[in-house]
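Recap slide: EcsC family protein, sequence and predicted structure.
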Amino acid sequence: MTYEEHIQSELLRWQKKILRPPGLLEKGSKAIQSKVNELYPKKFFDTLTVTIKGLVRGVLFGLEYMPKGKPIKNADLMERDQKALELLKNYKRVAAAEGAGTGAGGIILGIADFPALIAIKMKFLFELAHIYGYSTESYKERLYLLFVFQLAFSSQEKRPGVFHKLVHWDETVKDYPELKAMELFDWEQFQVEYRDAIDLRKMLQMLPGIGAVVGAVANYGLLEDLGHVGMNCYRLRILQEKGLIQMD
């Protein structure tokens, strides 16, 4: 079995996981989420919502996040995956260190962790795109990153819809012309899903004494999740372009 054939098998298993209906655990977590949300002051959610929308939009069009150099060309999938894993390893360390630092500061620095972590995640995705040969100078590639981010932090109920858009990217991007893309994107769903995805893991980061440990572990895990989804999205895209895999 070739490496690409091995990845095809992995991607088909991943597809089944993405498309499965939400189970009792996922359904029950929504009820728990509502209780968790009551623990936070309203100001916290207002700040988080504005931060997510403003920062993500800013990052997508910010030149400071553009990777240096050109996207990698003439590399096989195994080489790209190896570079991606090394990149992810480095970013998990950065995220963990950032989470430990802000977690040690209680509520105030805990709130400050959210924009910092979003920036780390988006910068990781920019560099990941270049590893797999896609230039983030194109608005279409930046929009693709946005949907990858959304897939990584969506609930099981919403994931199939986002996954479908990524699988059929050439058709999806036609619905988001450059001058209207950011207005047409569903920011409300993006913000709610991201907030709910991180709340359960990040809640304890606000507590003095254990915040540093929780912050480091939570951020490490969140980057791990994003890395797994990001790599699979680009693997799938490359194999689709080669005509080696087809998904509904």
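Residues 48 and 114 are 7 Å apart (CA to CA).
The chain has one domain: 3-241.
(End of recap.)
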